[in-house]
Specification:
Pfam families: PHA_gran_rgn. With 91 residues, the protein is an alpha+beta fold. It contains three helices and five strands; from the N terminus they run E-H-E-E-E-E-H-H.
Length: 91
């Protein structure tokens, strides 16, 4: 198992950050075929080989994910894509 843990600061309001994370979730669904669900201020995502959460924090988001054996080999690509989309959507 491999872990991704990304902290990304942003200047957005809580409402706009939640909308942006919704857009991030759509990108994850398209690119990695994950299922998503909101629980309070946390967006959980999962699929075979990955289980994670995007936590909405004041002025920041934190992405935590556990990658299974097969996706561990692609950790760099997955992490880079998450960082790219966070920068694009949250600034």
């Amino acid at each position: 198992m491999s872990t991704i843990d990304i902290h990304h600061a942003h200047p957005l309001t809580d409402e706009r950050a939640r909308e942006a994370i919704g857009e991030v979730a759509r990108k994850l669904q398209e690119r990695f075929e994950v299922s998503t669900r909101w629980e309070g201020a946390n967006l959980h995502f999962t699929r075979s080989g990955v289980d994670g959460v995007i936590e909405l924090l004041p002025g920041a988001v934190r992405v935590k994910a556990e990658l299974g054996f097969l996706l561990s080999a692609m950790k760099g690509m997955v992490e880079a894509e998450i960082r790219r989309v966070l920068s694009e959507k949250l600034g």
